[in-house]
Amino acid sequence: MITLENISKSFGDKQVLRGVNLTVETGKSLVIIGGSGTGKSVTLKCILGLIRPDSGRILIDGEDAATAERDAFLAKFGMLFQGAALFDSMPVWENVAFRLLRGSLKRPRAEARDIAVEKLRRVGLGPEVADLFPAELSGGMQKRVGLARAIAADPEIIFFDEPTTGLDPIMSGVINELVREIVVEMGATAMTITHDMTSVRAIADDVAMLHAGKVRWTGPISDLDKADDPYLRQFVTGSADGPIEAVR
Amino acid sequence: MRFLAAIGRSVLGLLASIGRVGLFVASTLTHLVRPPFYIKEFLNAVLFIGYFSLPVVGLTALFTGGALALQIYAGGARFSAETVVPSIVAIGIVRELGPVLGGLMVAGRVAASIAAEIGTMKVTEQIDALVTLSTNPMKYLTVPRVLAATLTLPILVAVGDAIGIMGGYLVGVYRLDFNPAAYMTNTMDFLEAGDVMSGLIKAAVFGFIVAVMGCYHGMNSGRGAQGVGRATTNAVVSSSVLILASNFVLTELFFAA
After folding, report:
1. What is the mean pLDDT of chain B?
2. Is A38 helix (H, G, I), strand (E, B) or coil?
3. Taking the CB of the first residue and of the last residue of chain B, which one, N or C, has fewer CB atoms within 10 A?
C-alpha cells in the first residue's frame, strides 16, 4: 500500500504540491489525472525519492520512504518514463536487463539476456529487436521496451508516466491493454499519470484528480461519470468552459 | 544602489557555484572509494578519454615542439646561445606546454562530450531512470569518468612530451642544422626527473578538472537543446580557465619546493 500524507513541494517561489493526501491499495491501479503543471510528475518523483518533498510523509507498506534502505526500497519499483528514457549507449536487451546485469539482482549475462528476450516477447517485441539500439526504434517500440525494462525485475509497484503520450490512437490502445494485462497478471500496485481519458478508462481501478497542487477528487472508476465536481466534469468532458481556466 | 546590488548578486552567485562544485567534488570523492565499482564503464572511459585523445594531443605536441625550437633558436641567437635549444625545448615541453596544451585540448574534446552526453541523459530522464533502476548516477557516470581522466591524462601527456621533443628534434636537425647526436645528448643531459614528474602531476590534476567539470555541468544541465548547449559551453570554458589557474598555482608550488 502506498500512502501519501500531506505532501508539499515548492520550486523557488512556485508551490507545486500543497498538501497531497493519497492512498493506493496493494494490487490496485490508480490513475492520476490533471492538467499540465498540476504536479502529477512531481508526485511520482517524490515517492521514488528523485525529488525530496518539503513536508509530509510517504509510506510504502507502512515503511517511511525517507528512512528506508535505498536499494531494497527501489528494488520494489519499476517505472515507465514519458519518453521511455532508454539508455542510448546500449542495445535494447541490455536496457531491459539493466537491473539484472549489476547490483544485488546481478545474474549471469546469458540468463539476463534470456529474461530480457522473454520480457520483450511479453510486450509484443520479437527477439530480433534485442540487439538493436534504442535510436533505431519507433516511438511505440521504445515505449514497449521501456515497459519491458520496468517489469524486468518483477517489481511490486509500477509507475507509468504518460504511457500513451505521442503515440497514435491504435498504438495507444495497444499500450493501454498491455499496461492493464501486465498489472493484473503480475498483481502489482500501479500508479499512472495521464491526461488521456481513454487510458484512464482502460487502466484505472481508482482515479485521483490533481488540481492546483491538491487532490481535487478521488474515487473508483465506476464513479467517474457520476461525480458532480465541476473541475472533474470539465476535465473528463474536455470542455473549454468551466472553473479550470484555459489559456487561449 | 542598483549598481552595488548587481555586484552583490554576482558575488553571491559566484560563491554559490563554488559551493555547489565543492559539494560535487566531495560527493565524487566519497563515491570513489565506496562500492559498487563499474569496471566496464571505467574501461570505456579510459578508451574514450585516453586512447582516442592521442591523435589530438600528439599533433598539438608535435607542432608546439617544432615551433618552440624555432622561437628559442631565434631568441637564443641574439646572445649567441643557440646551443640551449634542445634543453629549453625539452624543459619547456615537459614542465609547461605538454601538460597545459594537452589539458586544454582534452578539455575541448572530453569535457564537451561528457557534458553533452550527461546533459542529454538528464534532459531525457535517463538519469532519473538510472536511479529507479537502483544505480547511483554519481557512481555509474561520474566516478568512472573522473578516475579515467585523472589516471590517463598523465600517460597521454607523457606520450605527448616525447612527441613534442621529437618535434623540436626534427626542426632542430633538419631546419636548424643541429647535429642529431648532440641534440639528443643535450636534451637528455639537462632534463631532470623532477621536470617530468611535475608535468605529470599537473596532467593528473588537469584530467580531474576536465572530467569533474564535464560531469558537473552535464548533471546540472538546463532543459532542452539550449540547456545542453549551455552546459557544454560552460564545461569547456570553466575547465579551461581552471586548468590555467591551477597551472599557475601548481607551478608556484613546484617552484617553491
Report:
1. 94
2. coil
3. N
